[in-house]
Amino acid sequence: MPTPEVGSVSGRKAVRFPVVDPATGETFDEAPDQQPGELDDVVARAQRAWHGWRADPAARTAALRGAADAVETAGDDLARLLTREQGKPLAESYAEVARTAARLRYFADLAPRTRRIDDGRPVHSEVRWRPVGPVAAIVPWNFPLQLAAAKFAPALAAGNTVVLKPSPFTPLATRMLGSVLATALPEDVLTVVTGREPLGARLASHPGIRHVTFTGSVPTGRAVAGAAAASLARVTLELGGNDAAVLLDDVDVDRIADRLFWAAFRNCGQVCMAVKRVYVPARLHAEVVEALVQRAKTVAVGPGLDSGTRLGPVNNARQLARVEQLTEQALADGGRAAWGGHRLDGPGYFFAPTILTDVPPGSPVVTEEQFGPVLPVLPYRSLDEAVDAANSTGFGLGGSVWGTDLDRAEAVADRLECGTAWINHHAELSLAQPFAGVKDSGVGVAGGPWGLYGNLRPFVVHRPQEV
C-alpha cells in the first residue's frame, strides 16, 4: 500500500532517514525526515479541520467506525510491516492491529454526558463538554500502532484533530496506518509526521497544540512537559515502569509459571507494564528460578516473520546496548545468570532471555527499567520486606501479587504503590478501564471514559428559570 508524503516542502526533495530491521541489523527502507519548520503548516491545517470535525458528533462516530473497518481490512499489510520494523513475532503484530481497530470502535461509541447542577438556586446550570483543539500524540517504538490508537482514538472521538509522531525507529507502519485512516477520516483530521529530533520537541512546544499526549521514558517525559508548558498545553504522560511481581508463600509455582514468564518476556520485555522484578519467598526461590529457566531455555527466539518465533529481537542497537550494560553491571555486582546473560551470535539485535539471581537490591537492573528480556528474581524473608522492596523505586505503573488465597493476595495488592495491581496475572487491560501511573510513571489518565474526558474541557451554561 503506498504511503503518501505528508508535510513535504514544495520545490525541495524530502530528506529521508534509514529504517532498520532489528532481526538483521540492516536498513530495509527509509522514511521522510520532516523538519521542525514544516509543523507550522501541519498544525494550521489541523486547526482548520478541527472546526468541521468537532461540529458533528454523528459524523465522527460513523467515521471512526469506518476507520476501524479500514484497519481490519489492511491488517495483513500492517502486521507484516510492523514486525519488519519493530521485531515482534507476527502473531503479536496481528494482535496489535486488532487492538488498534477495537480501540477505534470502542471510542466511536463513547460520548460525554451533560450534567445538570442542582444546588437550590433558581438557575438551570449545565456542564457540557468541548474538545480542546489540535492534539499532539508522540508515540514510542514498542507498540507503535496500539499506543498511537490509545492516543488518537479518544482525542478524535472527543472532537479534536491529531498530529501523530511515531518513533524514528518505527515510522513505517504508522505512516501506513495514517494512509489507511485517511480513507475514512476527513482531510487533516489525523496527520502523521515522521522525523528525528528535534521534530518531537518542536511538536510538543508548538503554540497551536492544545494537548500533548506522550508515552516514553521519564527523562523525555519531563522534557515534553517542560516544552508543553510554554503554551500552557495540557499534558498526558505515560512514562516508565518497573513493575514488581510479589509471589506469596502459598503460590502454586507450576500453575503460574507460564503466565509469570510471559508477563515479563512478551514483546521481548519491551512493555512499560511488564514484570521487571520478581520477589519470591526464600524457600521457593530455587523452584521459581528453575521454572523460569526451563521456559527461557526452550522459548523459540528468532526473526518475528519466522512462523515458530515466540521471542523476537530487541528493537534497536541503543536499547540492546542498554540491556547488555545493565546485565553486565548486575553480574559485576555479584549476580548470577541462571540462564542467558549475553547477546546471541549472528545478525540482528538478539539478546538471550535471561534469568538473574543473587542480584543485590541496589543494582540498576533492579532499581531502573531494563526494558528488555532480562528478569531478576529476588528472595525475601518477610512479606513486609517484599512490599517495601516493591515500593522502593521511583516508578509506580503497575504491580501484581500471585498466590492461592485471593483475599490475602488482594490485601497485599492494596499495599502496592502503583496505578494498576493485578492478582495472578499481569499487564492485562480492558479498553474500558483507566490506565495511569503514580510517582514518576506518569501524569493524567488514559483508557475508558477517563481517556475521553482527558481530551475535553468543561463548559458551563447558566440559565435563569424565569425571565
Automatic annotation (TrEMBL):
Entry-linked CDD domains: ALDH_AldA-AAD23400
Q: Pfam family example for this protein?
A: Aldedh
| InterPro entries in the record | Ald_DH/histidinol_DH (IPR016161), Ald_DH_C (IPR016163), Ald_DH_CS_CYS (IPR016160), Ald_DH_CS_GLU (IPR029510), Ald_DH_N (IPR016162), Aldehyde_DH_dom (IPR015590), LUC3-like (IPR044086)
- Which residue intervals define the domain Aldehyde dehydrogenase in the entry? 15-452
Q: Which catalytic residues are annotated?
A: 238
Which keywords does this chain's UniProt record carry? Oxidoreductase
State the similarity comment.
Answer: Belongs to the aldehyde dehydrogenase family.
Q: What is this protein called?
A: Aldehyde dehydrogenase family protein
Species source reads Streptomyces flavotricini
